[in-house]
Each structure stands twice: as C-alpha cells, then as structure tokens.
Design a protein that fits this description.
- With 175 residues, this protein is an alpha+beta fold.
- It has a single domain, classed as FomD barrel-like fold (Beta Barrel).
- It is built from 4 helices and 11 strands.
- The strands form 2 sheets. Strands 1-2-3-6-7-8-10 form a 7-stranded mixed barrel.
- The chain is globular and about 45 Å long.
- The two termini are 15 Å apart.
- The N terminus is likely disordered.
C-alpha cells in the first residue's frame, strides 16, 4: 500500500452537461482497489432509497474504486454512523491522473443492497431516458447493462459485494 496523495478530487460528470468535484480522503491505495472516505456530507434533502433515508446531513460513505471496472461501491451510513446499505454507481471506468485527480462519467443506473441482502436496480427510467436522448452512447449502454447483470449474478452467487467492502468498515476507514 502507498499513500502518495492524502486527498483525491473526483470529477464526476453527469450527462448531458453537469460535473461535480468530490474531494475525499484516500485511506487505501493499491492497484486493485482505492478506498476513499467522504465525511460530514451536506445533503438537503436527505437521500432516500426505497423510502428509507440512507444518507443525511452529517453522513459518511466509504467508497471503493476498482480501476478498470464499470462501477464503484459505497458503504452508506447515517449521521450517527449506522450502516444503511451498499450502493454501486454504474459509471465509466475511472481515469486516475497524477495529483489525485480522478475522472468518471455517471451512467445513471445504480445498484442497492439493503441490510437484509436484497439487491435492487435503481434509476432504470433515468437510464432509458438518457439513452433515448443520446447522453449515453450505445457502447456505454451495453457496458452498463452488462455490469448490472454481472453484479446481479455475482450477488446471487454470494460473491458481491467483494470481501474488501465488508473488511473496510467506517471505523476502519476513520482509523
């Protein structure tokens, strides 16, 4: 493990023309997985998934970025540190540049695994609309669908999320 950059700046493009930059603390960095910590999130209103608040003002998320994969994973927590579930953004593989700059593009689809282990695919309507508007290329559409199917198969076989996501709790990331 090497920690050459204590903070990363994730340039997160949301088609057609939005980009946000998320600055997070890099807590683990190796070729297979990069783990960042986002703390004291400012969310108004809170983020709800399937009618449950999963992130709120003061929440934290431990993020897992896998170079070359078409998704990242977040361990979502309430402001009091309670784990609410596991979230995956379907996105373009991140481009990791020198100086702690990362770039990626959101492909609208998301995957949620609740605390009972139930998997849900989220935002399919947004994905279909983005494809129809040409915001997602045909190649990106195919890769996004493949990635969701792969995650579902891996989850059904008990192999997703990967063990590193269970190993890196909020307490460990903060340590």
């Amino acid at each position: 493990m090497t920690l050459s950059t204590p903070r990363v700046h994730i340039h997160y493009r949301r088609p057609p023309d939005r980009e946000e930059v998320f600055t997070q603390r890099l807590v683990w960095d190796d070729p297979d997985v990069k783990i960042t910590l986002a703390e004291d999130l400012i969310l108004d209103p809170p983020i709800r998934i399937l009618d449950r608040v999963v992130l709120e003002r003061g929440s934290a998320a431990v993020w897992f970025t896998f170079p070359g994969l078409w998704h990242d994973i977040g361990r979502f927590h309430r402001a009091d540190g309670t784990l609410t579930g596991i979230y995956a953004n379907i996105l373009t593989p991140p481009i990791i540049l020198p100086g702690g700059v990362w770039e990626t593009t959101d492909l609208f689809l998301d995957v949620w695994v609740d605390l009972q282990g139930r998997l849900s695919v989220l935002d399919e309507d947004q994905f279909r609309a983005a494809v129809a508007r040409g915001w997602v290329t045909p190649g990106e559409e195919e890769m996004a669908r493949r990635e969701v199917s792969r995650i579902q198969r891996e989850h059904d076989a008990g192999r997703w999320p990967p063990p590193v996501v269970e190993e890196w709790t909020l307490k460990r990331a903060r340590g």
